[in-house]
Design goal:
The chain is α+β, with helices and mostly antiparallel strands and about 450 residues long. Helix content is about 30%, strand content about 25%. It contains 14 helices and 19 strands. The strands form 5 sheets. The chain has a 6-stranded mixed sheet. The chain has a 5-stranded antiparallel sheet with strand order 10-11-12-13-16, with no helix packed on it.
Amino acid sequence: MPLEFEVLPTTAINLDTEQINQAVENSLKIKKQSQQWQTYINTLALLAFKEWLTERADSLTVNEDKCTVFQPAIANVIAAVANLQVGKFKVCLLTNDSLNDDEIVVPRAVVDLPEYIAHFYVSIEVLEEQETAIVSGFLSYQQLMEKQTAANLQPKTDWTYQIPVGWFAQEPDDLLLYLRCLEANAITLPVTNNQRTQILASMQTELMGLLPQLQLPNVELWQVLTWEQGSAVITNIELLNWLDNLQQQGHNYSLQDSLKDLFKLLTQPAINVGRWLWDELDELAQELSWQLLPNIAPGRAMRSPIEEFQVITNQLQSRGLEIPSQARGAYHDLLLAGIPLRLYAVTWTILSESDPLWTLLLVLGTSAQNTLPAYLKLRVSDQTSILVEQGINQEQGDSYLFTRVVGNWDEKFLVSVSLVNGVELTLPPFTFYPGRSH
């Protein structure tokens, strides 16, 4: 029998062992095994495209900082290489694995969502067994829209378009001319919807009921959500990260509480504790009657409630927690089911060899200096999960609950206080931007 084989064009790019290993390593960051292969192929496509550019136009700069293939939570739901920056242009790489395919499966997100739409879409054939890739064609966003309208091309139920390979028939080397000579504003891209937060907030209740279903193995977003709901999720990296970690959620803490806290972190205004370092309260903290504490240093003569916090500071020091002199704090009195409570919050920066960090120390007591009720709980969450859920030690009869969390400057923390009967009070998120106001 005659052997069937594909004749590779002379422009084919050979993939070396280092590139293949890099693609394997990147694919293993994807938790869902069903998506690992696609991420592997997409990574090979990116590495081949970069080599193709270098060989033909080494003056073009490639920036992959926002490239979706290196963000596991996004790569898990978008089977393309989106948000690749080449010079002044956004480029999206679309892969297939055969020279004979008639259609390319394209994620709807890179066609319909401004956050992932590109100036140019590049078709790349990745022949994994031959360890080869071929840049086979491209089209601009304007051309894609014109062809889509003319063909009345509709998305499939799995949130993909099946685009004819013939749409990408342009000579790939022409792309280099456009990337070097064309102005980016010659191809108009849709503007990102600035109502994303409001849309997400309006869908909170329905998403709260649907998203936990994605904890089941091999369940995809399109099988659970409508496209409108999916759009709100896919355009929010914090929500995608939460979903990416969903298999690890719900073991020690309530899945519903974690998701509820996340929505509050994403949709509610936050108190900027970074301003406390300048002895300032932002408008939200002022509206909620937070009160700044003076410089936190042992041995000063203070009056209540500042005097009370001095006692707390001494207790923390006895437990080995030193509060640096540059730390600043504030307190807030609150009422939970008739119980008067006082929450102290203290913040300071932490020197780090990599990213700068900030810490939030929380102390919950009663404003009447009574013992805390035995059924009280303090919960702290960030954008990924519940970090702390702490109750009272009934045997010790604690007067205070202490907890401390640390995060990068782009992280927020949400604090909730609850009773066993379901009564709960959640404060606005805490964020950290230390710049001084003017």
